[in-house]
Design brief:
mainly beta, 2 helices
Length: 299
């Protein structure tokens, strides 16, 4: 009887050990995202970019232009050898993130920012072991925006949050997913429901509209038409003064942004940045489509 209990304990212990090793294996293989360079010169870090399971030494370098206005050249060395050189960048600073999706999918995101954090460079690279150079796998800047940050990574997916400002709604953020294979990184869809106004964080005018913006709600100041699709040819409905509209979807097509709103179970689209403020008056804010937007816009 005692021997049976002993053997049973051994079996249970072995089972817990096996489960623990399995969980540990899953944890070690989990996708990860971390910043490896920011605002510093000649900094070295150790991460695996050659996909051999061993950490490589990455060394980052910046060279200013002759007038010391911007970074003329940004370089990355892998184990002491030049692997990439970005020239005439126009950036004031660089940030680099290391993306490890799996043992065979390891990337660098290199982003360069200018005034007002406007990104002039934002690309994802993979190291080519044959050439000893980094190759571009995705250019995030193909989506027009002020800036874009990678927010999460999985084995087959990279999620990017974009930020941009438009005359109709001010500053908004939205997310796009990118599909990752061993050969390429591609945008899944140009449509996104993961869209949000950031004006809810701005209470400066003291008008209280930030409470609406925090819920993606916009109060109409000047009546306008919305359309059934992004061709903006067939009218869906007219938004009258003081109506409440909810921003619920966006679509980027041919570098143009389209916004979809909901009101009373109806939906309608408009093209962004087609509305102009009337600066010939002393109160251009009154010419906006929605209350409270103009006073919260940057620049």
């Amino acid at each position: 009887m005692k021997m049976g209990c002993f053997l049973q304990s051994l079996m249970v212990g072995a089972l817990f050990l096996a489960v623990g090793l399995w969980i540990g294996s899953l944890t070690s293989q989990a996708a990860s995202l971390k910043q490896v360079y920011s605002y510093k010169k000649e900094r070295s870090v150790k991460v695996d970019v050659t996909r051999d399971g061993k950490k490589d030494t990455l060394t980052f370098g910046e060279k200013m232009d002759s007038d010391n206005n911007y970074i003329d050249k940004f370089t990355v060395k892998v184990n002491g050898k030049n692997a990439i050189a970005l020239k005439n960048t126009g950036a004031l600073y660089f940030g680099v993130y290391y993306l490890k999706l799996s043992a065979k999918r390891e990337y660098l995101q290199i982003a360069g920012g200018a005034e007002n954090d406007y990104q002039v460079i934002n690309r994802i690279y993979a190291y080519n072991n044959k050439t000893g150079k980094f190759e571009k796998k995705a250019d995030i800047r193909k989506i027009p925006c002020r800036l874009a940050d990678i927010t999460s990574v999985k084995k087959n997916k990279i999620t990017v949050k974009f930020n941009a400002q438009y005359n109709e709604v001010g500053n908004i953020e939205w997310k796009y997913d990118y599909k990752v294979t061993d050969k390429k990184i591609t945008l899944v869809s140009r449509t996104s429901r993961a869209v949000a106004s950031t004006l809810g964080d701005v209470d400066y005018p003291g008008d209280g509209y930030e409470k609406l913006f925090a819920k993606n709600l916009f109060k109409v100041q000047n009546a306008f038409s919305l359309y059934t699709d992004i061709s903006c040819k067939k009218e869906s409905f007219t938004a009258e003064r003081d109506a409440l509209l909810k921003l619920s979807k966006i679509r980027m097509e041919a570098k143009k942004m389209y916004l979809m709103f909901e009101m009373d179970q109806k939906t309608g689209w408009i093209q962004a940045d087609t509305h102009e403020f009337d600066f010939s008056t002393d109160s251009p804010q009154k010419s906006g489509l929605f209350y409270g937007v103009f006073d919260r816009m940057a620049g």
